[in-house]
């Protein structure tokens, strides 16, 4: 017989609460670029040093190669959405769920389709000129600016 689960973990419950708070804040502030940038800056500033450095780099890269994407937070993560409001790319800090690496992820709105198999996320530990080039290429493609 299958073992019963206790439902969402404490971290997962916290993420759901955070998302609900984000939606309320977006509704209150409007869905402006300034409000989104402020929310992303605050989310990044709250991260531990290692994650913050990576998130600042991702934010810089997105701003350079896909400035049309709208910054916003998504489950507490810095994220960037298309004109329809759909998340294209997000950064998940390693500290969020105590993992050994941060994640650069792409959602369904990302235009990365490549046959029957394509990347949807990367583990990221450090930004180097090489990793920044790879990230920029994927974000540019995901945002439809290839």
User: Quick one: how many beta strands?
Assistant: 5
Please give the order of strands in the largest beta sheet: 1-2-3-4-5
Calculate Rg over CA atoms: 16 Å
Number of contiguous helices: 4
What structural class do helix, strand and pairing data support? alpha+beta
**H-E string:** HHHEEEEEH
- Uncertain runs: none
Oligomer: single chain
The major pleated sheet works out as: 5 strands, antiparallel
Helicity range of the residues?
40-55%
Mean pLDDT: 90
Shape by Cα distribution? globular
> How far from one another are the termini?
51 Å
Walk me through this protein's architecture.
The chain is an alpha+beta fold. 44% of the residues lie in helices and 17% in strands. The protein contains four helices and five strands; from the N terminus they run H-H-H-E-E-E-E-E-H. The protein has helices at residues 10-29, 33-45, 49-65, 129-142; strands at residues 70-74, 77-81, 87-92, 102-106, 121-124. Strands 1-2-3-4-5 form a five-stranded antiparallel beta sheet, with helices on one face. Strand 2 (77-81) and strand 3 (87-92) form a beta hairpin. Helix 3 packs across helix 4. The protein is globular and about 40 Å long. The termini are far apart. The model has no long low-confidence stretch (mean pLDDT 90).
Write the layout of secondary structure elements.
Elements: H1 10-29, H2 33-45, H3 49-65, E1 70-74, E2 77-81, E3 87-92, E4 102-106, E5 121-124, H4 129-142
Antiparallel strand pairs: 1-2, 2-3, 3-4, 4-5
Helix pairs in contact: 3-4
């Amino acid at each position: 017989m299958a073992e019963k689960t206790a439902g969402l973990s404490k971290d997962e419950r916290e993420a759901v609460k955070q998302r609900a708070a984000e939606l309320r804040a977006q509704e209150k502030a409007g869905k402006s670029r300034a409000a989104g940038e402020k929310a992303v800056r605050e989310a990044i500033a709250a991260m531990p040093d290692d994650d913050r450095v990576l998130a600042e780099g991702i934010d810089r890269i997105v701003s350079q190669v896909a400035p049309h994407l709208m910054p916003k937070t998504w489950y507490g993560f810095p994220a960037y959405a298309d004109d329809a409001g759909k998340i294209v790319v997000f950064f998940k800090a390693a500290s969020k769920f105590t993992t050994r690496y941060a994640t650069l992820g792409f959602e369904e709105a990302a235009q990365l389709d490549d046959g029957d198999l394509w990347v949807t996320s990367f583990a990221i530990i450090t930004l180097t000129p090489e990793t920044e080039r790879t990230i920029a290429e994927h974000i540019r493609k995901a945002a439809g600016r290839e």
